Structures are given as structure tokens and as C-alpha cells.
Amino acid sequence: MSLRSRVVPPLAAVVTAASLAACGGGGGGDTANKAEVPISATAASGELDTSATLTFADPFQNDTIDPAKNDSGFPTRQLNLVYDRLIGIAPSGELTPQLATKWEFTNPTTLRLTLRSGVKFQDGAPFDAAAVVKNLDRSRDLPDAGAAVSTPAEAIKDVKASGDDVVEITLKKPRYSILYDLAQNLGMMISPGSLSGSLDRTAVGAGMYKLVDFKPGVSATYERWDGYWDPDAVKLAGFVIKSIPDAQTRINALQSGQVTMSLIDESQVRDAKGASLRVSEEATVSAWTMFLNLTRGELKNEQVRQAISHAIDRKALVETLGHGHGEPAVQLFPSSYEAYSQDWPAAKYPFDVAKAKELLAAAGHPDGVEFSALILNRPLDKQLGQALQRMVEPVGIKLSLKVVEPARYSMFTDGEVDMFLGRWGGRADPADTLKSNAAKGGFINPGGGTAPDFQALMDKIDNTPTGDARVKLVQEASAIFAQRQLDIPIFARRSIFADKGCVVGFTPYMVGADEYRGVGVRKNCD
């Protein structure tokens, strides 16, 4: 992910160029041959079925289509289809123009956005500076907005239109990560005419597809919007996202033709390939992690945290739970990500029972320690918890697992348990990911425990504009996070997609929700 803010060509052109570079040949032929074509490959316009509807099987469920209330990054792909954002994100995480063509900080607390002219919302209303002001004012005033919107909105002091195409955002204090906030839910632009009503089940945006039906937790159905400002990005007549939590049900639906493409689990890759399905995977900022409450008991002690880390055989977990798809991690980022610090690879915390026991003894606990660990009632989560429980026991560390339904995750953020074993997809801005997990006020850091040197770096990053200097500071903060094990990452996951070789122009995203600009389906392909 790039932490640099720069203007690049329109996003459709970026996708096309990246796709052509990845394309190893044309399509056609039987299913086996189609499966050899990279999923990111493009096809000539005559090879695409522009009357096709792409149906995607998603393991995540979405209860609201309102960007301000939708606080999870995983189902945001549903919002991206109908809502364009002020700033876009490329698959690698780099900021790109979308509804704003350029941006600059005129001073540390004033951000000026130049808007794309001639854009309309799906109800025909003009997209202009006044519409941006109304959207951001709504986010600032909405009492039940989720943290992904309420936190950055709280940082805004004022929003003003300067003519039709320029917006000035005044911040209460420097927050250079506001650029990344505007590339996520906060920057999703809603037609002003629909702002006064409920947006839980209806949506009118300026995106590629119109929402025609939304069933919370079940499905979202879209149709092509012919008035989209970048028509080359829209290659399908329609799009359907079905929420199918069960992994086997998803792959069955793919094989039977009920869906066109699906996210699959690591355990299914071999069987999917054996069934002549095409499989594509991408490293992501999502990692299985022990999220810690640094204000509870012995987790305050750095040596205890390091002992836990040495007691974990990360390579074994990648091979078993990850089926070889992933990499051991002691940072919150994969090694291919720009925020990753090369100074603290996973090899710094090798699986070493003797070292773990030595650290526990040095911390004053030669007879061991015990922690309560929250885990969600889902198969992979429970397998991880049980595996970790067995791994750390010989060291003298006892994990008392508390298995709860996902809705009770707040037991951790409310400070009722020592740790939470699970995964989180991070934020578009890696500095915000680090802050959320281990800085004072971080929403996944109950009690606000931290390390002074880490907090000092995070404060410095807040006052550093995007660019090389900020990149270096984030890497330094990630190294301190890893050294002190402010949380205990286990292994970085990958996003794994499967289809029958029919989808073209799709590149999995390393950070943020996947998008479908320029994505199409080839003719005569099933």
C-alpha cells in the first residue's frame, strides 16, 4: 500500500493497464483452458457478454447499506458498487482519483478537494461541492454512525463549498489520514435528495451500478447505470452479491452455476483446482491475531507477551489452519506491504519453548500464567483457539477459551477478557491500523494500554503529511509494535477467489474492499 498521495490517470485506465500487464494470453476454448487465463486478464469488448449478470458468493453478511452505519470492511464491496468515493483506492492500496480529481493540504488543517465535473447521481441530481458538504455534514451529525465514519467525522471542524467544483475541509487538528478516510465509507457520496430518509435498505449514489434490491444479511442486487461518468468501467448488465457464510455451500453454488465467482477457504484450494475451477489469491492486511488488553494483569509485562509469542509455532499453523496459504507474522502487515518493517520479520520470534519459559521466569512467573481468551463461534476461529491453547500449554501458559456468538465480540472491547483471538482486515491507512490496535484511544485497544515509544511515534505520524517521511515513520512504528508484541499476530491471511474461468478484469485487493471496475464475463462461458 502506498502512503503517498499523488494524482494518477482515471481508475479505469489503471485497472486496464495493470490487467494487460498480468494477461498471459487470450480466452476461449474449454473450461480447462479458460482456467489457465489469469482472473485479472482483460478481454476485447467483442469477447464480453455485456448482457451478463455476475453473481458473487460472499461469506460476510451485511445488515445495512448505509455507508455511515456499515462499520465492517468486509461487506463494503456491496457499497462500492453503488457509491463512488471522493478518493479511490487501487488494488495495491494506493490512493487514486475518483470523484475528486486532485487534493492538497493548503495548511496542516485545511484540505482542498477539486471535484470531477459533469458527474450526476443516479437520480439525476448533480454531484457538486454542495452535495459533498451535505454528505459530510450528515456524517458529522449522525448519532448512530459507526466508528469508521464517526471517528474521522469528529475530526472535521467545518466543510465549505468554493464554487461548484472545490471543497475545503477544515480539521480541528492535523489529520493527514483524512485522505484514507475519504477513500472509505466517509467519502461515499449519497444523492442529497435521499439523505433525509433511511438508507438502511435503499441507496442512491454516483457509482457504476444501481441498487434494485437489498435483503439484509441475504443479498444485494444491482443493475448497470448507463449514466455513469466512466462508462468503460461498467462491463456487466447486473451484479448480485449473495451472503453465504458456509464455505462448502459457496463452492457447491459455484460448481452448480448458481454463482459466477466466490471467496473460498484455504482448505478448499486443492479441491477447487481438482474440479477445474480457477483459483486466484492475494496477500491482504488481514491476519489471525491475539488482540490484547494491555491494561489487564500480566499482559502489561512485555516479557510475558514475548513469551507467548515464542510459544507459538506459526509455521505449523500456516501449514495446518492455512493449508500453506499465508505467512507467519509478528506485524499486522504482510511482508509485501509498504508499511511492513524489514527490521522485524517473523524470524525474530521463532518457536522456542525454552526461550518462552526463560522469559516467563524472568517476568516472575516460573510456574506459569493464565489468561481468558474470547473466540467467536465459527469453525476456523475455534480451531485456531484450540490450536493455540495446546501450543502454549507446555510453556506454562493457560488459555481459558470463552466461545461466543459474533454479536458478543464487545466483551473484549468492553474490557471483560484478557484477549481476543480472531482476525481484522485493518484500515486503508496503515497508521490508522496501528493506532486502532495499540495506541491510546484505539477502538480495538480496550483500556488504551500502549508503549511510550510507540505512542510517541503515532503522535508524530499524525503531524506528518503523506509521503516518504510518513512511510518511514509507519515502518518504525510497526517495528516497535512487533518488538514489544503490543498485539500478537500469528499469520497473515490471503483472499482466495474461485470461478470457472469466465470472469475477466478482476484484481483482488490487498487492502480495503474489492472493487469491480472493468470487471466482465466472457461470452459462451459456463
From TrEMBL:
Q: Which SUPFAM superfamilies match?
A: Periplasmic binding protein-like II (SSF53850)
| Name used for this protein in its record | ABC transporter substrate-binding protein
Keywords from UniProt, A to Z, are:
Signal, Transport
Question: Has UniProt tagged this entry with the keyword Signal?
Answer: yes
PROSITE patterns referenced in this protein's UniProt entry, alphabetically: PROKAR_LIPOPROTEIN (PS51257)
Q: Which family does it belong to?
A: Belongs to the bacterial solute-binding protein 5 family.
InterPro entries named in the record = Peptide/Ni-bd (IPR030678), SBP_5 (IPR039424), SBP_5_dom (IPR000914)
Q: Which organism was this protein described from?
A: Actinomadura livida
